[in-house]
Amino acid sequence: MRQVCQLYESAAELEAHQIHLVSTDEMTGIQALERLHPDQAMQPGQPRRLEFEYERHGTLSLIANWHVALGKVIAPSIGPTRKEFDFANHIAKTVETAPDDGWVFLLDQLNTHRSASLVRWVAVCCGIDSDLGVKGQSGILQSMETHTAFLSDPSHRIRFVYIPKHTS
């Protein structure tokens, strides 16, 4: 937890060195609802009446980044799923906003935040030309622990800091 607090405290200094500190999380299962009829306007002596019937259009997942130094949301993603591929694409889209800068992402320990897709993307983006191994068998791609160690490496221009379990 000390590392997380120190990062928040140093956000402005990091930003001065073109390193963006971003807190990232998801909200899943957001219902996409459409009211069937318009609300009725307020009349003298009566409040506005809100329509209660609606049509469901499925659910959406929001992945958002809070840029700590700037105090604003940057590069949010909204889509129908929250899978490994969706999260890796979200991170890529975020980094594209300042592709040559450093990035530190604060996030929880969800499996999609430590996926093989994310490891591969970080390796390419950071110019790490080493054998990553085989998913589930060897090398960096062997396990969640090896993924996490690689993604957390402070020598990488793009790195991830995972908050302790049960603290989000």
UniProtKB/TrEMBL annotation:
It holds the Pfam family DDE_3. InterPro entries: Tc1-like_DDE_dom. Residues 21-167 form the Tc1-like transposase DDE domain. This is Transposase, putative. It comes from Acaryochloris marina (strain MBIC 11017).
